[in-house]
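Input sequence (369 aa), recorded before submission:
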Amino acid sequence: MIIELHALQSFAPSNLNRDDTGNPKDALFGGVRRARISSQSAKRAMRVSDVFKNAVKAPTGTRTKNLVTHVVDKLGGDEASRDWTQKRALAIAEDLYAKMDRKSELQTSVLLYLSDEEINAIVDLLAEAQANNADPDIKAISKGLVKQLANRTSAPDIALFGRMLAEKPALNIDAACQVAHAISTHEVNTAEFDYFTAVDDFNPKEETGAGMLGLVAYNSATYYRCARIDWGQLLENLGGDAGLARQTVGAFMRAFALVVPTGMKNSFVNQHAPDFLLAVARPDNDGQSLANAFEKPVRNGRNSGFAEPSIEALCHYWNQVEGCFRLGEPTVAALNPRGCQLPSEELENAAVANLGKWVDVMTAALAGA
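Predicted structure, token format:
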């Protein structure tokens, strides 16, 4: 079972995701320049959002190089106890996950992506050894944790996005979710610039002029966004917990619809609701992106923007592709807040009233998967 998620979303002037020069990211597609939001930026925004955390109702993962310090802080104690814990935690971290950073003896050389279950297991094992006044067998602890944690996690976000530990491949987890780079459905040639000034409030009245000058780049566009979830992989990653897996899908769908990268949000207020959402649960193939609906860039008609022509282009392309390549009968849900006339009886019949029902249709389809 594959779940496809598609969105069309328009943003007023903003700079959601900057490149190394401070300009909004872009890409070439269909022979023209497009505005772009990177998949990494989108995934992090969803992963750390309150929308995802509140909906999934389970502890999420932590990315950190500071595992050792965190374990020491959780165990606490006097200086001698903390020194004892630090030495053992260092040994476990290095034996289980990665070598320590040469510049910082207390940090791992790479970012670790860890569940609360993993961190608490290390804390509990060290606490037990300390209580028994015993020196723990680091190799045995690591071997036991690898056996306990291989190919599964209790953290929904790790199950979705996976993790890789080059030094400890036994703890790798294949991602169950793929997120595409969002691209504009139409041509966006170059960024625009806001020239701004700031005035020194203590300037004497007779002194005019700015205390500082600056430029901020921005653009505006209607974006196509796409993600897919492999239900079987997600279920495997969560150790077969179907209830948590369905909760994870629902939480991810809410975050996909409502969360965007926070780049320069205080300057632009970049929170905008989607113009159109489409979800498809496919029981017997790998699903697809619909980005090629916009390989020929959308052009805005007279007295219209890009959102409605983009919805029309997406739906027409959906009809064409489904007519040629469909395998089996998917479950479809469409959320159409603009109330556009959809050029497909199937999509019209799949229309739902709100975000909650859009999510419910997909999670219900997973009940027998």
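Checked by second reader. Residues 307-325 form the longest helix (19 residues).
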